[in-house]
Specification:
Layout lengths: L2 H11 L8 H25 L7 H23 L1 H11 L11 H18 L3 H20 L7 E7 L5 H11 E11 L4 E9 L2 H9 L4 E8 L7
Antiparallel strand pairs: 1-3, 1-4, 2-3
Helix pairs in contact: 1-2, 2-3, 2-5, 2-6, 3-4, 3-5, 5-6, 7-8
């Protein structure tokens, strides 16, 4: 079998069961590893986590190659494929994936291994290009400024009207989320959308009886 025939089987036609050669397997593994490295580079480029986890990123390449090897094994021997399905059915993964994007990259790497192992590497390449373009474009879009929490500590509940006047002056949106009043002080938590944060704090601290004022940002998506 010529190199052209091997490449055609690997990228377009797919592998026929019980008809895999050493060259088929080597080219399949190399192609899977190259696409896995491409996934590695995309993940490293768009990663926004506070701490970049290089071990997780490297595992994406290994996961793609291992999945391709499993698919090749299943295609080459029906008896082995039944045993492989039974063995994989008892595997349990305990590591929690906190970031949804990490889950996307895991599924991407597994899909690449499955598609390349089946002998349709061209589909895997095309899908990887489209997925990476979508991810890069979406991550490049600037997010709208989200709501923040304004926390105010005053020495009396009588200052609430003055507080809300200042908040309404500087904030585009405001909503009281919590109010705690005692005989000696009052604490308020107000959800706000504000572009002039420094001016808002300065205005609040200009009110007699305000002990402290702070703005707390929080992570989350913004619904427009």
């Amino acid at each position: 079998m010529s190199i052209k025939d091997v490449l055609q089987k690997t990228f377009i036609e797919g592998y026929a069961s019980m008809n895999l050669t050493i060259s088929d397997m080597i080219i399949c593994m190399l192609c899977t590893a190259i696409i896995g490295i491409y996934i590695f580079m995309v993940y490293k480029g768009i990663n926004k986590n506070s701490f970049y986890n290089k071990n997780f990123n490297i595992s994406l390449i290994a996961l793609a190659v291992i999945t391709a090897a499993i698919i090749l094994t299943i295609q080459s021997n029906i008896i082995v494929s039944l045993g492989m399905v039974g063995a994989l059915s008892i595997v349990r993964f305990r590591t929690a994936v906190k970031d949804p994007m990490d889950l996307v990259f895991l599924f991407w790497a597994i899909s690449v291994g499955i598609i390349c192992g089946a002998g349709f590497a061209l589909i895997s390449i095309m899908a990887s290009i489209v997925v990476s373009i979508v991810i890069i474009v979406q991550t490049g879009i600037k997010d709208a400024k989200g709501a923040m929490i304004l926390i105010i500590n005053a020495n009396s509940y009588e200052h609430e009207d003055e507080i809300m006047q200042v908040v309404d002056e500087y904030a585009e949106y405001s909503r009281v989320k919590a109010r705690n009043v005692t005989q000696t002080d009052m604490n308020m938590a107000i959800e706000i959308k504000c572009q002039e944060e420094k001016e808002l704090i300065a205005g609040l601290m200009g009110i007699d009886g305000i002990l402290s004022a702070s703005i707390v940002d929080h992570e989350g998506d913004v619904t427009l």
